[in-house]
Every structure is written in structure tokens, then in C-alpha cells.
User: What shape does this take?
Amino acid sequence: MNKDLQSIVITEDEIREKVKAAAAWLDERYKGKNPLAVSVLKGSVMFFCDLVRAMETPLQIDFMTVSSYGKGSVSSGVPKIVMDLAANVSGRDVLLVEDIVDSGHTLVRMRDLLLGRGAASFTAVTLFDKPCRRQVDVKADYSCFEIGDEFIVGYGLDYAQQYRTLPYVGILKREIYEK
Ligand code: PRP
Assistant: This one.
């Protein structure tokens, strides 16, 4: 285990199982379709790569960098688009892949933006859902893990841009974020 962690809360095996289940759910939903899968960078990158490889549906992939936290742990409430998609989403079935839905601002922003650009449908999948932190009324169509207000890192999730590459998810020691 990484020395800055207090404990591991979700193992690699548990993640793998949930990814498989999410992929099966999406394959069923997109039968006969050719969706555009969008990874909201940077947090969702690990989940996204595992998820689309577990899916059988033929699809295209694209990326968007959105940031609302900067170095802190409180949402600015105004997600900023740092890098836009390359693809035209008009008429496309868009599958948005998030690592976490927290305040909900990012999901609302993405949904309104992509439907506003003429997407034929919008489906959001998230690895983690933190309903207790919601500031706007929104929910992903599918969420792998519902969690409380713990500050977790790993498998894409960061603290000050660190720990994203851990293959599991854990809770940071308090001394790390309080120093
Ligand atoms: C995180 C996360 C989601 C968003 C969720 O991104 O990846 O995109 O916050 O929070 P919200 O529901 O409160 O909007 P962040 O801005 O930290 O950028 P990152 O993905 O590069 O870590």
C-alpha cells in the first residue's frame, strides 16, 4: 500500500468486478448503436480505459478536460473546459464517463453542453457517486460505487495531482492534506 494512505477502501479486484458489470449494462443499453464515449479528464482516464475495453459495443472515443477543483478539495462550482472534444456530437449517442459525481456541477455542465450541441442522447456513467455532497439535482444513469464524504484517491482520483496512478482506491492520512 502507498505510504501516504491510511487504508485501502476498494481493491483492484472490486474495481474490476464493477467495471465488468457497468460494461454489460452499457452493452445492453447501446445494442445496435454506435456511441461516442467521452472521458472527462483527467480523473476518469483509468476507469474510462478499462470500461471501454470491457464493452463489446462498437464505439468511438474522445476526451475533454474539465477542471473545477484546482489544488483544493472544494468545487469552484464553475467547471472550466480546459480542452474541448475533437468530435462533432451532433446526432451522436454520447456516453459520458466520470470518475466521481460530487457537487454535480460538472455533470450538469457536460449534459447541458453536449445536448446543446445536438447530441441525440446523453448517458452518464460514474465510478463513484457522493450523493451527500450534491449541490445541484443531478444523478448519473449508472454508478459503480456510492460512497460517503471520505476523501479518496487512486485509480484516477488525485490529491494535488498526486496518486492518480494507484491501481486501487484508498483514504489519505490526515497529515498529508493538513500539512
Ligand atoms: C473532478 C472529477 C469530476 C468532478 C466532479 O474533477 O473528475 O470531473 O471533479 O465534481 P463535481 O460533481 O463537484 O463537479 P477535477 O475538477 O478535480 O479535475 P480532474 O478530473 O482533473 O481531477
About this structure: The beta strands are 5-10, 36-41, 60-67, 80-83, 93-101, 121-129, 142-146, 152-153, 169-172. Residues 12-29 form the longest helix (18 residues). The mean pLDDT is 94.
